[in-house]
Specification:
Layout (H helix, E strand, L loop, with lengths): L7 H22 L7 H8 L8 H8 L3 H13 L3 E6 L2 E9 L1 H25 L1 H12 L14
Antiparallel strand pairs: 1-2
Helix pairs in contact: 1-5, 3-4, 5-6
Length: about 150
């Protein structure tokens, strides 16, 4: 009989999707332009002074091509812009536009409300414990020694 218990990676993925769905619903209710989960992740890891597409891809765990496509869509929507990188004539930095900053503030406020709703549903102590567990340093991911022999 197959096991119905989900492993931790499945649970974390489901929790991320729960948060994203709440964010998307809040942004849609506010009349904002729909974005993809990849676009949301890219916006969340941008440095204020700008970030290269390669670094965005590394931070979000997607390919450079995927990051570039997501950035292109957000540039077309007026949320991000590309500017010259003062440290490298060959590279460009991606940063939020004024409109992007407005949308980012709105999204952060929506995520704060989502966290409040989660705490109301599962309890303040459990929500705080969840945050503490996720913020704790986990060290590098396990290597080949985690695969059964």
């Amino acid at each position: 009989m197959p096991s119905t218990q989900r492993d931790l990676s499945q649970l974390l993925g489901a929790a991320r999707r729960w948060c994203e769905e709440g964010l998307f619903a809040a942004m849609e209710a506010a009349g904002e332009t729909p974005v993809s989960p990849t676009q949301v992740q890219l916006c969340s890891v941008l440095d204020d002074e700008g970030t290269t597409v390669s670094e965005l891809a590394r931070r979000t765990g997607v390919t450079r091509q995927t990051a570039h496509q997501a950035v292109h869509g957000l540039v077309a929507a007026g949320i991000l812009e590309q500017v010259p990188d003062p440290a490298s004539a060959k590279q460009r930095l991606i940063r939020r536009t004024a409109e992007g900053e407005r949308v980012h503030r709105l999204a952060r406020a929506a995520l704060a409300r989502i966290e409040e709703q989660l705490a109301a549903r599962i309890g303040e102590a459990l929500a705080a414990a969840l945050r503490a567990a996720l913020e704790a340093p986990w060290g590098p991911p396990p290597g080949a020694d985690s695969v059964p022999g």
